[in-house]
Amino acid sequence: MQNKLDLTEFKKSIKTLEIAIMEYQNNGNEFVADSCIKRFEYCYDFATKIIKRHLKIQTSNPVEINEITFPDHIKTAYSQSILLHSWDKWHEYRDDRYATSHGYIQDRALEITDKLPIF
Fold it and tell me: What is the per-residue pLDDT across 65-115, written as a single tens digit (0 to 9) for each?
């Protein structure tokens, strides 16, 4: 297993989200809000994979990372200071991710879009 994560593509995905958020903040366009939501979804998914990979690199027994829950992934990564936000905030991100991908309610989507700069 490699000892270092390549974050190049992850950084690019975050940059696309940042660009969409700035555009949305400048004009409030509904189409741009939709773009923000989609970009949040793939950045969130990418982030969860990166966190898990990081934890596998950091542990002497990578198999144990597959056996712990997602909240434990987040709590462990937060305790290692690789995340800015704790499980409470990541739980909210996860709820937002599920809300956007399992149905589209415009008011909820716009509420989530307004919170994305924190993510």
Answer: 999 999 999 999 999 999 999 999 999 999 999 998 877 778 888 899 999
Q: What is the dihedral of CA 34, 23, 94, 51, to 10 degrees?
A: 130
Q: Which long-range contacts (CB under 8 A, 24 or more apart) does 20-25 make?
A: 21/113, 21/116, 21/117, 24/113, 25/117
CATH value at residue 79: 1.20.120
Q: What are the angstrom distances between the C-alpha of 34 and each of 41, 54, 114? A: 11, 30, 12
User: pTM (2 decimals)?
Assistant: 0.90
119 inside domain? no
CA atoms within 13 A on the CB side of 49: 11
